[in-house]
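Section 5.1 Outputs to date
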Amino acid sequence: MGMLKTDFKKQDKALYSGKVGRFDVVDVPAMKFLKIDGVGDPNTVPAYGRAVAALYGLSYGLKFYGKPRGVDHVVPPLEGLWWADDMGSFTSRDKDSWKWLMMIRQPDWVGEEDLAAVQESVIAKTAKKKDAPTDEETLRAVRLGRFHEGLAVQVLHVGSYDAEGPVLEEMHKRFIPDNGYEMRGLHHEIYLGDPRKVAPDKLKTILRQPVSLLK
């Protein structure tokens, strides 16, 4: 009997799946994440690539750290919360002023001490690599925390990130108000495809917007 391998995408299928053109209302429970934040165009600021590499490095580090302790899980997809001080720059795709919080979900057993131990080992490994995708400063900036999103509307988008505009327009301006909700919180994306390996027109992304019921 091998150890049980947790796969959040299967366990919480409704949160990681959807259909193009169909808006689903979900209630997202509190979950544990590794998080790191920053600002600027994800395509051009080096800090974004370092942040994502740090999240993946630590997430895989925690997975392998857990195995000898009898726990195993599939590393879940990368997620991002996105906003701008002027939300107009969001719809106009003025990406230099975008702010982001990138996250990868973690199993409940992961604690601060586990993260600290894995951070030290990943930092040591990174220091030995010539062209490491991240650095010590970024790895130390990653923190562990809970995030409770609650009621939200989501849809599956297939295609490039820049083609999200019309889908978000439909969600924000039509579906949400027409169904008695109002927007709150931050625009949330869950990257089901790895942009480093998948062609832009094949990328699958869950687009999520937290909402509350109109009083």
